[in-house]
Design goal:
- By secondary structure, the protein is mainly alpha-helical.
- The chain has one domain.
- A two-stranded antiparallel sheet has the order 1-2.
- The N and C termini lie far apart (55 Å).
- The mean pLDDT is 87.
- Its cofactor is heme.
- InterPro entries: Cyt_P450 (IPR001128), Cyt_P450_CS (IPR017972), Cyt_P450_E_grp-I (IPR002401), Cyt_P450_sf (IPR036396), Insect_CytP450_Detox (IPR050476).
- It is found in: Endoplasmic reticulum membrane; Microsome membrane.
- This is Cytochrome P450 3A43.
- Keywords: Endoplasmic reticulum, Heme, Iron, Membrane, Metal-binding, Microsome, Monooxygenase, Oxidoreductase.
Length: 96
Amino acid sequence: MDCQVGSITIHKATGVVVPVWDNHHDPDLWSNPCKFDPDRFSPANKASVKRMEYIPFGLGKRNCIGNIFAISEVKIAIFRLLNEFKFEACEKQKIL
């Protein structure tokens, strides 16, 4: 079955690719898209990020199989850092 998206017709069996890199670097979607800004995903700002704007591992049943592995790997790295080192706030760091 064909699908109509606006003025574009997508015919049955047509491959569709989402340009993820372009979405993640689109100035219409993100302010300063090339700037590393982890605060854009903070609990206060997370609600403003629409579901389809940030999709690093894809969506649906065919999403990246590395998703769970990547998250597990980051958790293990953080736990190892916490286990091996002592972390302290510097004098200028505001404690929340």
